[in-house]
Amino acid sequence: MAFSVVVLAAGKGTRMKSSLPKVLHPIGGIPMVQRIVNNAESLDATAVHLVYGHGGDQLKASVTGKQINWCLQEEQLGTGHAVQQAVPHISDKEDVMVLVGDAPLIQTATLQRLADVKATCDLALLTVELADPTGMGRIVRENGNITAIVEHKDATDAQREIKEINTGMMMMSGVDLKRWLKNLDSNNAQGELYLTDVIAMAAAEGKVIKAAQPDAVEEVEGINNRAQLAALERALQARQAHALMMDGVTLADPARLDIRGEVIAGQDVSIDINVVITGKVVLGNNVRIGPNCLLTNCTVADNAVIEANSIIDGADVGECCTVGPFGRLRPGAVMKAQSKVGNFVEMKKATLGEGAKANHLTYLGDAEVGDGANIGAGTITCNYDGVNKSKTRIGKNAFIGSNSSLVAPVEIGDNATVGAGSTVTTSVDDNALAVARARQRNIQDWPRPTKK
Ligand code: UD1
Ligand code: CA
Fold first, then answer.
1. What pTM, to 2 d.p., does this model score?
2. How far is the CA of 4 from the centre of ligand 2 (A)?
3. Under CATH, what is the fold of the domain 3-220?
């Protein structure tokens, strides 16, 4: 059955002490509410009604999704009032899944389970048992059947003994929800319109109410402060690391890998400690990542090795390439198969041809280096004249001597050679040698200066 999702995200998040709305704080590199929207989209929800109250402009600028319908809740009068803001957009012919914007570790599979349970009853609740349920709404059952949710502040001592709690996530038909929401009142300890009051209404109508459970408690844990944010970040990282290992990736220490985005890894990849992966990263088979590397929006092909302390951002590393230690590939860097970038080499918008090498202390910017070329230590492509960026082309099997400056725009031909220490300002033909430096003078028996 078609369903839409209501995400409750209007809370102020005061305890975050932040100018950023709480639900925009990233977890695993993605704003927490974006994770909820992504879940809804992967479940094929027809629409996501996002109930917000603060930082609307910031939210609209950051959260993306195909079916987002922004619902402003001007005053936060309770969770029931929050859902009421979405009512004008909810059709009678669909089901509605209510989610919270600040419990970002919820998994799609768990939400699917909630939907599956809803298909067998009138009202499905996601519940968990907590050793310490303090503060949470309690699930009240009679003879095993759910009859109500009572908020902690409204609960009797006996009800406070109940360990099964409301996660805030539930699903019911649009018609039922709309009818129940009309009858809410704020006659309770907090003077709010409680969404949770619909459960007793459903029970009174003789509706069938069932509960589903998540795989792990962390899935339904909310974030109110930065300590909880950090704790759930670690939980998410542990989950992601575990999934990678189950997919055949070796991790030197699963607690010292951070994935802030998405990684797709081939077989027998190994990742050393203190690696941070951001955005979308694709690693081929047998890739080895050394310690302390940062990988951002990049691809690393089969059998490539990234040595310690390298930074790869927006670059493509080809098969059997090696980078680093201390290599830096910036956006637009492309390394063709078997090429090598060594220590303190920086590449930006530059292509290194097959088997080409830049092993030490080099800057290649706005450059094209042909197959098999050798770029000597200390070579710089001078791509910027203070106003414009220009291109350097280096031919196949060219040999650039150490400490050369190639002043762009300039071309070095195939098999051409540049003598060490040259400043090359005009293009060099194929097979030619360019030497552009002061000729050496040797002065015989030169008297050293002496102290006066
Ligand atoms: C709510 C539930 C409680 C449950 C707990 C789980 C109610 C009355 N209580 O309690 O049973 O155990 O969540 O965490 O539903 N929100 C709005 N607008 C509002 C109020 C809240 O959008 O006017 C949003 C918040 O941003 C948050 C969610 O609803 O994402 C839950 O609100 P919160 O204040 O945390 O509810 P609790 O009192 O903790
Ligand atoms: Ca809460």
1. 0.93
2. 22
3. Spore Coat Polysaccharide Biosynthesis Protein SpsA; Chain A (3.90.550)
